Amino acid sequence: MELETVVRELAPQLLRYSLGRTGDPALAEEVAQDALAALVQRWRRHGPPECPAAFVFAIARRRAFRLTFQRRLMAPLNVLLEGHSPLPGPEERAVARTDLGRTLAALRQLSGRDREALLLVGVGELGPSEGARVLGISVSALKMRVHRARQRLLRILEERDGTAGRTSRDAAAPSAGSHA
Amino acid sequence: MEPLDGPHETRLRQALDPTPEAVERVVRRALAAPRPAPVLRLLPAASLIAALLVAAVLLVRPLPTRRPAAASIETVGEVLVMRPKDGPVSIVSSGPEPSSPTGTLIVIYGGGQ
């Protein structure tokens, strides 16, 4: 097992997880980089951890929580000091219309626990035992959370796709009348 | 566990997929993390030991050694008798009651007096 190979394998998984967790690509890069840098330092000092994936995801999880919390705390101050509008800007509105934006919106509708489990296992591609280790729960509890998250996400995406389909049909035929 | 590669999860992963440039940037920066200097690595342990030593010096003082009594004091009725290890025995009495406020009587005997 070589350090650089492991880092290269874990980087895309971590970036996906971090983006799903923070909803911000710049923040996601920061989270993933910090977690991987911690792995590199640990590896060079004491050798590889027992499970490098669980190690980096545990760090990324804590870091993502801290950074999003800080951002939420600072948001009102940024509005006051720098005159940033709390409303989404043109760039944020454009992102919201993309598949990424819609996916992030769907993920936000899940409960925190279920979202975390789905992001670790479904997006970060951790195994059930590694995911359970990161969350500090049993494998069966993790499976239950992932199952629940999948069902809920499926419903949200189906509803959304249905609405999107109706919206595009209505837009194509405006004479058909207004839609709810 | 049911298979993870359902169409929605694939779609989820595709939507969150990072660009190759972002992956490369993160990998490069992580691998460039500075190696800890040996002195800095020992710094926490050294500070802990120093703090423990200071605490030991401040908190753990030598207990005072118990010295033998220099004198014993006992009361016999209204008379107080003090018997030093060396030197004269002192007897203190308040004198006859209560006629005089200055009626204290001190008798010293022994030691050649």
> pLDDT under 50 segments of chain B (min length 5)?
none
Strands of the biggest beta sheet of chain B: in what spatial order? 1-2-3-4
Structural domain tally of chain B: 2
Rg of chain A, Å, rounded: 19 Å
Q: What is the share of helical residues of chain A?
A: over 70%
Mean pLDDT of chain A: 81
Describe it.
Chain A contains eight helices and no strands. Chain A is globular. Chain A is mainly α. Helix content of chain A is 81%, strand content 0%. By secondary structure, chain B is α+β, with helices and mostly antiparallel strands. Chain B is built from three helices and four strands; from the N terminus they run αααββββ. Chain B has helices at residues 7-16, 20-31, 38-59; strands at residues 71-76, 79-84, 89-93, 105-109. In chain B, a hairpin with a 4-residue loop joins strand 2 (79-84) and strand 3 (89-93). Chain B is rod-shaped and about 110 Å long. Chains A and B meet through helix 1, helix 2, helix 5, helix 6 and helix 8 of A and helix 1 and helix 2 of B.
What brief labels describe this structure?
heterodimer, A: 180 residues, Arc Repressor Mutant, subunit A, 2 domains, disordered C terminus, B: alpha+beta
In summary, what is this structure?
The complex is a heterodimer of chains A (180) and B (113). Chain A is mostly helical and 180 residues long.
Blueprint of the fold:
The complex is a heterodimer of chains A (180) and B (113).
Chain A: H1 3-22, H2 25-46, H3 52-82, H4 90-97, H5 99-108, H6 112-123, H7 128-135, H8 139-172
Chain B: H1 7-16, H2 20-31, H3 38-59, E1 71-76, E2 79-84, E3 89-93, E4 105-109
Antiparallel strand pairs in B: 1-2, 2-3, 3-4
